[in-house]
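REQUEST FORM: STRUCTURE PREDICTION
Request ID: SP-0412
Submitted by: Lab K.M.
Chain count: 1
Length (residues): 402
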Amino acid sequence: MTQKKEDLKQSMITQFKQALKEDTDFLRPLIQTVAQELLEEEMNEAVGARKGERTSNRLSYRSGHYPRTLVTRVGKIELMVPQDREGRFSTAIFERYQRSEKALVSALIEMYVQGVSTRKVGEVAKELCGHEFSASAVSRMNKSLDEELERFAKRRLEEDYPYLVVDARYEKVRIDGVVRECAVLVAVGINWDGRREILGVEMANRESASSWKEFLLGLKKRGLSGVRLAITDHHAGLRKAIREVLPEAMWQRCYVHFLRNALDHLPRKADDDCLQELRWIYDRRDCAEAQQDLRNWIERWGPRYPKLVDWVEENIEQTLTFYSFPRAHHKHIKSTNMLERFNQELKRRSHVVRIFPNEAALLRLIRALCVETHEDWIEAHRYLNMSHLRDHLKTKLESEAA
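STATUS: Completed
RESULT:
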């Protein structure tokens, strides 16, 4: 007998689910009726009497209704909100609705941040709640992020960051009706706890010494200090800005960019091990081994590729600075790969938009992604064990004192 009841119950649940699938408007009139009845009950409590009821406890009188639309998860419902003569009536339904609306807006914003276009976000919103949001409406919703993102971008930097990684990427933006490429400047710091943090993200018309200097000065004003090594590519303007703003910091030229630049000094059809052997120099235990390998490399490849060898001899010292730091950190501080991976994620998300309608829209999306990544990094395992650097500096001080 019990088994039959369970089977019947399961059958009813299955039929109910099927009815919901076949009729997407199944719940909408039900919720509309319940919400309307709740409004009327709240009005009864506010005036102290039901409609048409004669009582000495009456506090006020009804004064008609006004229409109000609610966008819910089952679609858009139309309600008639009662009002009283003194204007004392206030319903709690819309307060709950506002919280739900904020949740919906947050979901739409998150979809946009995850790389979904505003048009597609509108389509998804229509499927979720039966109400279509235009692309412009979704864009307006995203503007609510601006204050929070501005606080993140301008926050005070309270710690020292021994390692600083700086890089830029370009995005297409429509400015005054013309599509232009704007530079997005990003700085990542590694603190003494060994954790990565996104310290700053700003926009500039182009990469120049002045734009980089302004960016770094902004970080300094917010409290950037204790930088011992700055890791960047070989941008002349950026290098000059680092020398002026962070004179105490050593400079590491990204060896990956260096090897890419080396291709410009090789014949197009070169297919031997020349660059592979050059790359091996960066895997040595210390600078002495690297210098020995470099001398061997020059002797071997100088006769065949004199132009490349001359260029390497002139510039490679800029890429060997990392050997002045703990060996355990070499893998992470000899290139900007960590920031390059982050830039790839930015590219994956921004590719959906392709051309941003204005600079504010671009900065909003990039900063939102920075906040997301920053929080992930804070919660993740330590990126580096900074005790190696502490021991290294202690040994260096003792050696200098001796």
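NOTES: The longest strand covers residues 163-175.
Reviewed by: T.R.
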